[in-house]
Structures are given as structure tokens and as C-alpha cells.
What does this fold into?
Amino acid sequence: MRFSRVGSRRQEGSSLLGSLVEIVVIVGAAFILALLIQQFVVKPFYIPSESMEDTLVKGDRVLVNRFIYRFSEPERGDVVVFHPPTAPQEDYIKRIVAVGGQTVAVHDGKLYVDGEPQDEPYVKNPSINGTFPEREVPEGSVFMMGDNRNQSGDSRVFGPVEESRILGKAFMVYWPPGKIGGL
It folds into this structure.
């Protein structure tokens, strides 16, 4: 009987050590899985400025689909996170207003794409200050503007953005809780 108790204690010690190793492995695997999901699938993003009001306000948090553009092309109207040409380490969020091959201009307080004035109900102020001469967006690039057009540093400042600089498409607000919903 004495030997069985010693063996039983050894099994308990081994069982405890095995449980601790299992927990460490599970936590490590979960951490690695979370990193992979953020890198390749869905990443949270914080809205740092007023440039996308009223669609997104400073402090909102959105989820960004990081793989959608592996299967489809960016389209006009998509709200995307990207690295601007003038600040390649920073993340910006803006709306695509024109894609490669289209022309874009701002005059008379309106955005024109291919010579046609755009109806944009999501824009904070329907009258855009200033002008931007007509310019063709190069193939493989997009033209970005914030929804708060009069308070946005966008493609009018830094030019068209190559599609390769797009990190993903914002698809959902997840914070604050009262604004949870799709974009």
C-alpha cells in the first residue's frame, strides 16, 4: 500500500505539471492564432480624427476585413484603411470616390467623377470648399476622400493611392456599443 501512495503522489505531481504545460500551450496557441487573424483576416482599427464624420467619429472603433481585396477589386464607396504615400507608416481611413481610369474633380462645391456630379448622402457638409482640377486616376490606384470633405487630408493632398497600399475594407463599427453595426 505504501508504494501505491508514492505512485499516486507521483501521478498527482505529473498530472499537475501536465495541466500547467497544457494551459501554457493553449494560451500560447490562442495568442498566435489571434496574431494571425489580425494579420491576415480581421483587424480592429481606431478612428483618430474627424475626417470621416458623420459616418465615423473620433474614437469609434471599426473592424477591417484584411483579405477581401485578394478576391475582389476596391470599389467606389468602400471605406478603407490604407497607408498614404506621404506617410507610409501611418494608417488612414477614407472612402474610395474614384478608381483607376476614372477622372475626378471638385468645383462648384461638388465632387465630379467622370464629369458627373456625385450624390453623396453620407458627406457631412454637402458643399465642398475649394477646387481640385480634373485628374485621371491611374490604373491600379484609387482616389480617397474623407466624408468630412472640408476637414480631410486626402487624395486631394497626397494624390491617388496605389491599391497595394490598402490594408483592408472597414465593414463594422464595434465600439461604442450604441453604434454597433455595419458600414
Summary: Helices lie at 2-40, 155-158.
